[in-house]
């Protein structure tokens, strides 16, 4: 039986890396970063200008279509997203038809977060293009988002995976990959 997996969580936590790993194992990948870029660039729609209700309806529509395709065509699908939170997952009408994992690094210090951000960024990633001051402000935001994700995952009974830092991160992602595949 095919499945739909949603990977959410913090920036630079390994969501896209894991989604690519699943893609190599036959999953179709839906990237909200790419979808949003295509819509913003192609249709000149700024997501920040949309109401929270419209943003959620868009999210739920994509999830429902992924579920339909998975069920009707026996296709595994992974959805890679940053903008939506455990509270949004809780509102999904078909939340019982998806596996959900939020990735974060709640035990990391700001220095470890900065290492993750810099180490895992490709030269073309937006974060690789910023100055030191902006990078540090991002690290502060990511640090705070970790705390919020821990609280929301606990509140809404959503699995939080601590992807840690450095070599431990690779092991955590491989273990989660194996859990999803089995």
Number of helices: 7
The SSE string, one letter per element, is EHEHHEHEHHEH
What is the annotated CATH architecture?
3-Layer(aba) Sandwich
CATH topology category name: Rossmann fold
Question: Cα distance, first to last residue?
Answer: 11 Å
Annotation, overall tally of beta strands? 5
Estimated structural class: alpha/beta
> Sheet bearing the most strands, described?
5 strands, parallel
Average pLDDT number: 94
Tags for this model:
182 residues; single chain; 5-stranded parallel beta sheet; 7 helices; globular; 5 strands; Rossmann fold; alpha/beta
Describe this protein's structure.
The protein is α/β, with parallel strands linked by helices and 182 residues long. It has one domain: 3-Layer(aba) Sandwich (Rossmann fold). The protein is 55% helix and 13% strand. It has 7 helices and 5 strands, in the order E-H-E-H-H-E-H-E-H-H-E-H. Strands 2-3-1-4-5 form a 5-stranded parallel sheet, sandwiched between helices. The longest helix has 24 residues, at 132-155. The termini are close together.
Topology at a glance:
Elements (H helix, E strand, L loop, with lengths): L3 E6 L5 H10 L3 E4 H12 L8 H22 L3 E4 L5 H6 L7 E6 L5 H11 L11 H24 L3 E4 L4 H15 L1
Parallel strand pairs: 1-3, 1-4, 2-3, 4-5
Briefly summarize what is shown.
With 182 residues, the protein is of the alpha/beta class. It is 55% helix and 13% strand.
């Amino acid at each position: 039986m095919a499945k739909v997996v949603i990977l959410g969580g913090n920036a630079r936590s390994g969501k896209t890396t894991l989604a690519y790993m699943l893609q190599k194992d036959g999953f179709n990948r839906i990237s909200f970063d790419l979808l949003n870029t295509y819509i913003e660039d192609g249709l000149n729609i700024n997501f920040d200008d949309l109401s929270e209700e419209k943003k959620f309806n868009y999210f739920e529509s994509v999830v429902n279509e992924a579920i339909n395709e998975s069920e009707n065509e026996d296709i595994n699908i992974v959805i890679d997203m940053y903008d939506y939170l455990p509270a949004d997952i809780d509102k999904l009408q078909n939340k019982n038809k998806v596996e959900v994992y939020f990735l974060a690094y709640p035990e990391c210090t700001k220095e470890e977060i900065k290492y993750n951000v810099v180490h895992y960024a490709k030269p073309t990633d937006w974060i690789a293009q910023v100055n030191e001051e902006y990078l540090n402000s991002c690290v502060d935001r990511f640090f705070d988002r970790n705390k919020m994700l821990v609280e929301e995952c606990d509140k809404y009974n959503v699995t939080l995976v601590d992807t840690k830092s450095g070599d431990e991160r690779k092991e955590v992602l491989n273990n989660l990959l194996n859990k999803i595949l089995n």
